[in-house]
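Fill in residues.
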């Protein structure tokens, strides 16, 4: 084996006991390790990185010396290419709030001791009561102690007094660590997302999922993220919000042991699910759906992913990672027709294309001539296919228009930004970007026309453009039909509530979707949420897929219509 900084000493010496003498000879500070009990204690908890701190040595010096004895230096260099031959920097920790609450510290100075004092430390720790702590003064980094303290879930703080003085403070251990978690909240790891260029929602959810029971993290955000709080509390978290100043909030999240034990018991028999959203228009629906107690009683959310680049969700479907996906109809059809075991159980978003202009008025396609017409995604994607089809149906020649596509993709949010900034004047946008642009444009940006109106005129006024809905893994449909039925019912109820309560829905969604409450309210007033079974609207769906099939990955749609299987739950 190659010995690395993260390798436990015991692991290495169990395999290569001859390295013990080599290690002990490397620093005078290791002399006391000749005591068998002390050495075995260090070996149990310490890594070689810890040992380097104890001896004031460079980790490279230790690793190269030991691996040279084993003949594994080349392997070391492959995984540890950069070495700095200086003593490791002392560990620096933020002073915890609990340190000032301790009334009495028992002090143990072990700098000159060569006996096995570890047992004495354990006994002292076990005797501590509320308001008491233990202060240990040592001449090197107390690696074995920190390992033991972490394993036993003690709160501790290390202070570097001088080169030869390292002070370890240990707080008495609460019998109920959940009781006083706010007293130690300042020791939580800070997670500052204010300057994040990407939507931080997924990263925050992962952080929450990775946080063990009995610990927490401090989220720093520009506002109080109420929807996020509403999602984390059912996951066993308690929280406290502190407004620091203008656009700065500290939200302390703590995952309680008691709640997690209750959730662990409650999770027995629940169906574990990975859920993803591939288009922002569905986010208010997702957030409302996940507040359904009926649904939460039946499922355990293992992961929730909200994609910034919507096409990335396809890999999760192809790899079988996602159980439930909110995505576009076109993407679902393409995935199904290329052999993926999925079903589309509902269409929930309809009529989602709007032509917006800035600086001039337009009522028809012909009014757009002479302007660069910016289209989302790329020329082979549904937005252009629908545009091309509608133009031809209206007697227009698409070749007479100057279409502009992004390289490699025309991101709707980027096109929205350019329209608001006055960099472009003609664009096709979906929701919510269309509403966001109208709100930010303050009257300078206008809705020229919607594809909905054109489509209805061409089809006799009844049909609509099916846009996006719910995709579920085929195995989930077969193995849990009752859950699929409940999911359908709760999704329908969520959409009904959003349509009737746009203000409340906007307030629940703004931190995840961006924009402002006002722009979200406008979006929710304009968007068409309508929960429909595909089986009830199959002819409209086939008609829509047929018009975008030519040379665009839907060759099976049309005469053969194999795509109908996507919507069958048999």
């Amino acid at each position: 084996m190659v010995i690395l900084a993260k390798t436990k000493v015991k692991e290495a010496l169990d395999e290569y006991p001859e390295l013990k003498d080599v290690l002990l000879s490397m620093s005078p500070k290791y002399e006391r390790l000749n005591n068998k009990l002390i050495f075995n204690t260090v070996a149990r908890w310490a890594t070689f990185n810890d040992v380097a701190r104890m001896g004031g040595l460079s980790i490279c010096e230790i690793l190269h010396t030991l691996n040279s004895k084993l003949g594994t230096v080349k392997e070391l260099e492959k995984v540890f290419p950069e070495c700095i031959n200086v003593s490791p920097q002392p560990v620096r920790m933020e002073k915890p709030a609990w340190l000032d609450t301790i009334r009495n510290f028992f002090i143990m100075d072990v700098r000159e001791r060569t006996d096995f004092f570890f047992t004495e430390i354990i006994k002292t720790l076990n005797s501590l009561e509320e308001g008491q702590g233990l202060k240990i003064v040592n001449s090197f980094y107390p690696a074995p102690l920190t390992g033991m303290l972490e394993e036993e879930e003690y709160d501790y703080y290390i202070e570097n007094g001088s080169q030869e003085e390292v002070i370890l403070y240990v707080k008495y251990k609460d019998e109920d660590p959940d009781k006083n978690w706010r007293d130690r909240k300042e020791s939580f790891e800070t997670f500052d997302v204010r300057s994040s260029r990407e939507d931080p929602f997924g990263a925050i959810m992962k952080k929450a999922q990775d946080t063990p029971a009995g610990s927490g993290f401090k989220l720093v955000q520009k506002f109080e993220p109420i929807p996020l709080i509403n999602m984390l509390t059912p996951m066993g978290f308690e929280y406290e919000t502190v407004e620091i100043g203008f656009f700065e909030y500290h939200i302390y999240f703590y995952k309680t042991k008691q709640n997690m034990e209750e959730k662990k018991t409650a999770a027995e028999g629940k169906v574990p699910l990975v859920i993803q959203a591939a288009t922002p228009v569905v986010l208010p629906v997702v957030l409302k759906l996940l507040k359904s107690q009926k649904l939460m009683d039946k499922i355990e959310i293992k992961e929730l992913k909200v994609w910034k680049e919507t096409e990335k969700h396809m890999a999760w479907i192809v790899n079988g990672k996602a159980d439930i996906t909110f995505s576009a109809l076109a993407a679902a059809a393409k995935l199904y027709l290329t052999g993926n075991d999925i079903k589309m159980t509902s269409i929930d978003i309809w009529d989602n294309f709007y032509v917006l202009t800035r600086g001039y008025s337009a009522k028809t396609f012909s009014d757009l001539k002479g302007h660069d017409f910016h289209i989302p995604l790329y020329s082979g994607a549904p937005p252009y296919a629908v545009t091309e089809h509608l133009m031809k149906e209206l007697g227009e020649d698409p070749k007479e228009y100057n279409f502009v596509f992004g390289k490699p993709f025309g991101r709707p949010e980027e096109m929205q930004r350019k329209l608001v900034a006055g960099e472009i004047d003609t664009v096709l946008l979906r929701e919510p970007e269309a509403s966001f642009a109208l709100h930010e444009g303050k009257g300078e940006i206008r809705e020229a026309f919607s594809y909905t109106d054109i489509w209805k005129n061409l089809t006799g006024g009844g049909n609509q453009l099916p846009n996006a809905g719910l995709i579920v893994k085929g195995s989930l449909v077969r193995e849990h039909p009752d859950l699929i039925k409940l999911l359908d019912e709760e999704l329908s109820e969520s959409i009904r509530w959003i349509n009737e309560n746009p203000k409340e829905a906007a307030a629940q969604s703004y931190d995840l979707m961006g924009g402002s409450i006002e722009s979200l309210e406008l979006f929710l007033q304009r968007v068409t949420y309508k929960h429909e079974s595909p089986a009830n609207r199959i002819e409209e769906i086939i008609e829509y897929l047929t018009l975008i099939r030519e040379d665009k990955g839907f060759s099976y749609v049309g005469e053969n219509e194999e795509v109908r299987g996507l919507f069958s739950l048999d």
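The first helix runs from residue 9 to 15.
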